[in-house]
């Protein structure tokens, strides 16, 4: 059996939740991300998606991020995306959604 192509590691802090993503965020794996993050979406919450170790993202992976953004926004939750790799950043940029995720505008952003 192959190792999982995509995994998430959730780090719960008092002020925010960081979701560290690794691997390929694709059609097969977008549901994993949505299911994990959905658990933490609530009014006033701050969720940070750390894409440092995401090696590839396709349109369905992008769709998962947009879906989470919409769910967060309607719940009054703040969703940020940090540490986009160059290819993933290009995809977000081409889809014209970089501005939706506040921290995504600055690739140098790192968690404290």
Walk me through what this model shows.
With 112 residues, the chain is of the alpha/beta class. It has a single domain, classed as 2-Layer Sandwich (Transcription Regulator spoIIAA), CATH 3.30.750.24. The chain is 31% helix and 29% strand. The chain contains three helices and four strands, in the order ββαβαβα. Strand 3, helix 2 and strand 4 form a beta-alpha-beta unit. The protein is globular, with a radius of gyration of 13 Å.
Helix content: 25-40%
**Count of individual helical segments:** 3
> What would CATH call the homologous superfamily?
STAS domain
Look at the structure and give the mean pLDDT.
87
Q: Record the strand order, biggest sheet.
A: 1-2-3-4
Q: What coarse outline follows from CA principal-axis ratios?
A: globular
> Taking Cα atoms only, what radius of gyration do you get, to the nearest Å?
13 Å
What is the domain tally? 1
| DSSP summary, beta strand count | 4
Alpha-carbon distance between the two ends: 37 Å
CATH C-level category: Alpha Beta
**What does the main sheet amount to?**
4 strands, mixed
- CATH topology, by name, is Transcription Regulator spoIIAA
CATH architecture designation = 2-Layer Sandwich
Q: Low-confidence runs (pLDDT<50, min 5 residues)? A: 104-112
Structural class: alpha/beta
Approximate strand percentage:
25-35%
Order of helical and strand elements:
EEHEHEH
């Amino acid at each position: 059996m192959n190792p999982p192509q995509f995994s998430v590691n959730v780090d719960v802090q008092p002020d925010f939740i960081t979701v560290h993503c690794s691997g390929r965020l694709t059609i097969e794996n977008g549901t994993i991300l949505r299911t994990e993050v959905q658990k933490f979406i609530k009014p006033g919450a701050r969720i940070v998606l750390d894409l440092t170790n995401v090696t590839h993202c396709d349109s369905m992976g992008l769709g998962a991020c947009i879906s989470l953004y919409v769910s967060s926004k309607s719940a009054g939750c703040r969703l940020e995306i940090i540490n986009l790799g160059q290819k993933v950043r290009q995809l977000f940029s081409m889809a014209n959604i970089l501005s939706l995720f506040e921290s995504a505008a600055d690739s140098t952003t790192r968690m404290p």
